UniProtKB/TrEMBL annotation:
Belongs to the UPF0410 family. Pfam families: Transgly_assoc. It is a multi-pass membrane protein. GO terms for cellular component: plasma membrane. It is found in: Cell membrane. This is Transglycosylase-associated protein. Keywords: Cell membrane, Membrane, Transmembrane, Transmembrane helix. The lineage of its organism: Bacteria, Pseudomonadati, Thermodesulfobacteriota, Desulfobulbia, Desulfobulbales. The chain crosses the membrane at residues 6-21, 28-52, 58-77.
Amino acid sequence: MGILSWIVMGLIVGIIAKLIMPGEDPGGFFMTIVLGIAGAFVGGLIGSFLGWGTVTGFNLGSLALAVGGSLLLLLFYRSRKKKQ
């Protein structure tokens, strides 16, 4: 996937993750995109490690892995921000 595809996927995944886990997070729109892109990367790593596949494009499996990774990063991000 190209960089534009990663940004679009990150935006979509970030929005889905925020819909699943609503709440106030600092960073706004830009942080949603960053968490989505990083979540797609983390989801792909975890999926490939467990043998579930990787994030290869816009398909249902890739979307599920990316959303899962984004939810993990969102949980981590919130836990770190609460401690500060």
